[in-house]
Amino acid sequence: xxxxxxxxxxxxxxxxxxxxxxxxxxxxxxxxxxxxxxxxxxxxxxxxxxxxxxxxxxxxxxxxxxxxxxxxxxxxxxxxxxxxxxxxxxxxxxxxxxxxxxxxxxxxxxxxxxxxxxxxxxxxxxxxxxxxxxxxxxxxxxxxxxxxxxxxxxxxxxxxxxxxxxxxxxxxxxxxxxxxxxxxxxxxxxxxxxxxxxxxxxxxxxxxxxxxxxxxxxxxxxxxxxxxxxxxxxxxxxxxxxxxxxxxxxxxxxxxxxxxxxxxxxxxxxxxxxxxxxxxxxxxxxxxxxxxxxxxxxxxxxxxxxxxxxxxxxxxxxxxxxxxxxxxxxxxxxxxxxxxxxxxxxxxxxxxxxxxxxxxxxxxxxxxxxxxxxxxxxxxxxxxxxxxxxxxxxxxxxxxxxxxxxxxxxxxxxxxxxxxxxxxxxxxx
Length: 429
What we know:
Blueprint: H1 2-13, H2 17-29, H3 33-48, H4 51-75, H5 81-101, H6 107-135, H7 141-169, H8 173-198, H9 218-237, H10 240-248, H11 252-260, H12 263-276, H13 282-303, H14 306-342, H15 346-374, H16 377-392, H17 395-419
Helix pairs in contact: 2-7, 2-8, 3-4, 3-7, 3-10, 4-6, 4-15, 5-6, 5-8, 6-15, 7-8, 7-11, 7-12, 7-14, 9-15, 9-16, 9-17, 10-11, 12-14, 13-14, 13-16, 13-17, 14-17, 15-16
């Protein structure tokens, strides 16, 4: 066992310097991600008891993300990518400060906090996606996301439980408010540490080319459709666990415990899958994640009680990392192929991809709001997830076609380079 652990450490240390620094940066920042994703939504739910406000908060976040992706593209001409990456991480703490300073959670205040959080995610994900694309190749991307997911899931065991029970242990409402302020300070400190780690990398900016396009290769439109399907779940799934648990279980401590059930097993599974699989296994991994997500949605919809929520969280702990472990390498491989064929900056595809996600997120959140206002929040919490999970199952066939066409394009492009005639330099003058 010890020898296996040493071998895994040696394998990680054999990776390039920037590979390791990016993993470590994201590892540190991962400590605050459960706070941002879960407990901010719980804060809104606790202080408003209105699930629609949580979803509106999420919509403002998702509106800020693509706008900041676009802004980030221009700022990369003037600032090093490490600075923009760090700003993204630190803005998450700023957004929480704005939220906690609101005397009343009205839509304007929630919207401002949401836009700032969206800017945080925009700077963070735009630069993180580019760096992950730049420092990995198709052969080691499963390993990269396997390592990331392993640490993310382990952290998801510790942080939700610790913070959830810390909030709940405060008892009185005024003490709970103070607990949220302490957590906000904790988030700020961690984002500073993550920024310091980030500056240890030798990251370089993308080559400055045009990055806004409206016409792409047909393969890219298929990937955008896959992004739309992915965005459907993201539309409100980030905050759905908080809404379900606060409504059906009622306390942040239960929220943290439910988040942690099965997380250790899931973490080990993700590392092993990332370490042992290759590009040929991605459709199967993706399909497994989508099926687990559908099972989670069905459990919640059929039971819609405390047991249903726990089953939902257990399946979700497997579904989300499996889908991400497969999705990002699929996306990056398509960008690798098309950026060579169309001779465009990789960042152009990263920016455009965010538009596909945004449309999906908007439709997903819109589905929830439509059911909530048209029927009730209970109907929305119960059935919106099922609708989205069923629609997402079509991603299996879409991803299979994308991988097949991407491979054919890549093979054809490589063959063209090999068979292209080599011109005599004398005769080309």
